[in-house]
Design a protein that fits this description.
Layout lengths: L1 E4 L2 E4 L6 E2 L5 E4 L2 E4 L1 E6 L5 E9 L2 E8 L11 E8 L3 E8 L5 E10 L5 H5 L10 E3 L2 E4 L6 E6 L4 E3 L4 E8 L4 E10 L12 H4 L4 E4 L2 H16 L1 E4 L2 E7 L11 H10 L6 H11 L16 E2 L8 E2 H19 L3 H21 L15 E2 H20 L5 H19 E2 L6 E2 L2 E2 L5 E2 L27 H12 L29 E2 H14 L2 H17 L7 E2 L21 H15 L1 E4 L4 E4 L10 E8 L2 E7 L5 E5 L5 E2 L2
Parallel strand pairs: 31-35
Antiparallel strand pairs: 1-2, 2-4, 3-6, 4-5, 6-11, 7-8, 8-9, 9-10, 10-17, 11-16, 12-13, 13-14, 14-17, 15-16, 18-32, 19-20, 21-22, 23-26, 24-25, 26-27, 28-29, 30-31, 32-33, 33-34
Helix pairs in contact: 3-13, 4-5, 4-6, 4-13, 5-7, 6-7, 6-8, 7-8, 8-9, 10-12, 11-12, 11-13
Length: about 650
């Protein structure tokens, strides 16, 4: 159970006790501030009966026990713990006894100030001695002091054991509450964005025939708000952390991709993310114009990939599409030099070799990287031309020449109709395995008047890719596998070796729908919605690609972040794509191209943001889309 309001989070098992073992604890900016918070009533731990999330930052734990005054086997005390990520624990004892009950309540507390990496590695860290402090306890360390205050004040405080104790009288049929507050002093950390989270992430609501749509959208927007961060040096600029608990900081490629998928909720997140990353752009040397990013695992058949390359290619795409959704001309103009730097880097990197390679991690040219590069060139050219900047003609010419070269080198003909290869190695040997990353070939980006950019594949190849993505080797029944089940070294838990990656499934669904392959899109959509239901609509970044069977549930991945920015944003992207919303604010138009067949029946989306105004759209059971609310400056396109 994970409560998140970054940079704060609280983690425990479903029983609610913080035991001091494993990941248990309250954290701030990756440091564990409280590792133990163990409750006993009358010397016994309550028997857990329920645990549930009440929001991304809050969890409620319910337990029961029988008081000494109770008769028979029935419990007569209910113990509720309401936990908030930012360090508040409210413990309420409710009695159903027929006369007043006096109970002793003990809470043992402790901390080790361990960083999250140390905790995750399982390395033991000794607890820090406590001292009595006002109505509670205090711990000191080089990372700053931490204190727990209690209301009402504890009647006994034993610092050596980290123990607070109360003797409480609970009236017949009444209740008593104890509240703990965690206070700490840290400097230089990223600050929470709770006060402005609603302004950054729009209050979108889904209605209609399928209640899963509203549950998924509500969980996604709540998780996005929980993962918002700002740098104290630039407090007006907000971006997303990659996910909790493992990646609570800025991951450039993930932040850009998530901001792009969340554009229907407003452009403020995109603007903050772009401004934050523009400051990190290399200004000199061979990497001039590119963005930094750590390498990441690329599966069993490839060396690690460069997230810096992906981020560099996503930057101009996000800026171009944010402009279509309503980012102001002044804001776009301010960020144009950084986008031009990214596009200039792309042209330099492909001057001698037409394919864009991960030069820092072995020189492989990955299929998804080529898709990102092609899209960046087309959308970047569109952006430069709109602002009368040089370079648009050259980028379009490069893209025109690149497409046939790509089809000749990245398409492997076989008896089954062919398939895209996963990559070309540094010596141009193809890696022939079918992977989920090929879905990015269907994501071409948004040009003017609601037109998608042309794709890299021809019509026949697009149809073949659609059949492969919708086939049993790739469609697990819960979503798109990252590696086909029939490939060597397939592993249902492999991050890029067979697991279902949520945002890649969403890319496949929307790309297939845009290309006209409704059957395949519907199949992947149904699987992803079923998986979301089993995860209480808080989608993890990935889960096992084991084949779905009757009555089964998807297997969680032990290393997956949950919540995570990309799957939360992908849920928004997916639902908005069902309505086919394609705005072009500079042209004062909006086009609706709903997914054919209305797979969720009637669907209404309100609280979206286009041109900085509320936007609402409804899709009927017949698949007809209607605008219900929009800026008066917009006109509906065909």
């Amino acid at each position: 159970m994970m409560c998140v309001a970054l940079p704060a989070l609280a983690i425990s098992a479903r029983h609610g006790q913080l035991t001091g073992q494993g990941l248990d604890g309250f954290y701030h900016a990756g440091r564990r501030l409280l590792s133990r918070c163990r409750l006993r009533v009358e010397g016994r731990e309550p028997l857990p009966v329920q645990a549930r999330m009440e929001g991304s930052d809050r969890a409620r734990f319910v337990g029961v026990l029988r008081s000494s005054a109770g008769q028979g086997p029935d419990p007569d005390l209910v113990v509720e713990r309401l936990r908030q990520a930012e360090g508040v624990e409210r413990i309420t004892l409710r009695s159903s006894a027929l006369r007043p009950v006096r109970v002793s309540v003990e809470i043992s507390l402790g901390t080790d100030f361990a960083d999250l990496g140390t905790v995750a590695a399982g390395r033991p860290v000794p607890e820090v001695p406590a001292a009595v402090h006002g109505t509670g306890l205090r711990w000191s360390s080089p990372h700053g002091p931490v204190a727990i205050t209690a209301a009402p004040p504890a009647e006994d405080v034993v610092a050596a054991a980290g123990l607070l104790r109360w003797d409480l009288e609970i009236p017949a049929g009444g209740s008593r509450t104890v509240e703990l507050r965690l206070r700490h002093e840290r400097s230089g950390a990223a600050g929470p964005v709770r006060a402005t989270g609603g302004a950054v992430i729009g209050e979108a609501v889904a209605t209609g025939d399928d209640p899963r749509a509203q549950a998924l959208l509500a969980a996604a927007t709540a998780d996005l708000r929980a993962l918002l961060l700002r740098d104290l040096a630039h407090p007006t600029q907000v971006h997303l952390a990659a996910g909790a608990p493992w990646r609570c900081g800025l991951a450039p490629a993930d932040a850009l991709a998530a901001a792009r998928m969340a554009l229907p909720l407003g452009t403020a997140l995109a603007h903050g993310t772009l401004r934050t990353l523009a400051r990190t752009q290399y200004g000199s040397g061979p990497r001039r114009g590119s963005l930094p990013g750590p390498p990441r695992d690329a599966g069993p058949h490839l060396p690690p990939g460069s997230t810096g390359v992906e981020a560099t290619l996503l930057f101009p795409v996000l800026l171009a599409e944010a402009r279509r959704w309503g980012l102001g001309e002044r804001e776009v103009t301010e960020l144009l030099p950084a986008a031009e730097g990214c596009l200039a880097w792309l042209r330099r990197e492909t001057r001698a070799d037409p394919f864009l390679r991960d030069r820092e991690t072995g020189g492989a040219a990955r299929v998804e990287t080529q898709a990102h590069a092609y899209r960046a060139a087309l959308l970047g050219a569109d952006l430069l031309e709109a602002f009368d900047r040089p370079g648009a003609v050259e980028l379009r010419a490069w893209a025109t020449d690149f497409a046939p070269l790509f089809r000749g080198s990245f398409w492997n003909e076989d008896r089954g109709g062919g398939r895209p290869v996963a990559a070309l190695l540094a010596d141009d040997r193809p890696v022939p395995h079918l992977c989920g990353a090929a879905a990015h070939l269907l994501d071409t980006g948004l040009l003017g008047l609601g037109r998608p950019a042309p794709g890299l594949l021809d019509r026949v190849q697009t149809g073949q890719l659609a059949r492969l993505l919708g086939g049993p080797a790739m469609d697990s029944g819960w979503g798109l596998r990252s590696l086909a089940a029939r490939e060597p070294r397939y592993n249902p838990f492999g991050h890029r070796g067979g697991a279902v990656r949520v945002h890649e499934t969403a890319v496949a669904v929307t790309g297939l729908a845009a290309a006209g392959y409704d059957k395949e899109a519907h199949g992947l959509l149904r699987g992803l919605l079923s998986a979301a239901e089993s995860f209480d609509y808080r989608l993890p970044e990935m889960y096992a690609g084991e084949q779905r069977t009757e009555g089964a549930l998807p297997w969680p991945h032990p290393a997956a972040c949950r919540p995570a920015a990309l799957p939360a944003a992908a849920a928004v992207h997916l639902l908005v794509a069902l309505a086919g919303l394609r705005p072009d604010v500079p042209a004062r138009s909006v086009t609706l191209c709903p997914l054919r067949g209305a797979p969720l029946g009637e669907l209404g989306l309100t609280g979206l943001v286009v041109a900085e105004h509320a936007f609402a759209v409804r899709v009927s059971r017949l698949g007809v889309a209607m605008v219900e609310e929009a800026s008066p400056a917009l006109q509906l396109g065909a």
